[in-house]
Fold:
Amino acid sequence: MKQKKLISLIGMMVLALLPICLYAHGVDENTQSFLVANKGSNFVPFLYIGAKHMVTGYDHLLFLVGVIFFLYRTREVITYVSFFTIGHSTTLLLGVLADFSINSYLIDAIIAMSIIYKGFDNLGGFKQFFGKQPNTKAAVLIFGLFHGFGLASKLQELSLGKDGLITNLIGFNVGVEIGQFLALAIVLFIIGRWRQHSSFMRFSTLTNTLLMIGGIVLMGFQLTGYFLN
Structure:
């Protein structure tokens, strides 16, 4: 009975906070003004913008939470995060430099799908319903590619100048990695402490179910935006 009440409470909190997160995600007005007016190479400002974007990029972070949720060894964490990093770094640079654009609503819907996938995977859904486990490293790499296109789409919308573009993109990408490292350090600390308590395994199903619910709501929001716009 208590667990049902807790599930309902957390579910309502997630649904209440999601609209705030949805509209908070992206590039704020001050950053937009800077990016549009920027001329030439500005490595450090772009590094800061990349770090800030990743720290506030709840969709990227939710996916990574799902990825590392059941990883207990440092080597495994580094391996999976590296696959994700290779994926999103490649398509971030490729997307902007080659001007390869994907509708931002559709790419964000796929990113939301990656969150649903990881929650479902953590719950053992593939083995239970399909009798087969996908290659998890390949899945993280592939979804990393889509996450990179999501980052690229945010920059493409601002029509960055060509002068100093490569330097600025590298700065942005390095900033993304710094932001990812800082966010993951906090998440790993929290999960590491939580694992020391019996409640971790008891509520792991609830946590990953909520991860899926969050992904479903995010995907619904993005698809609605696509069809309305």
Summary: The CA atoms of residues 5 and 221 lie 26 Å apart. DSSP finds eleven helices and no strands in the chain.
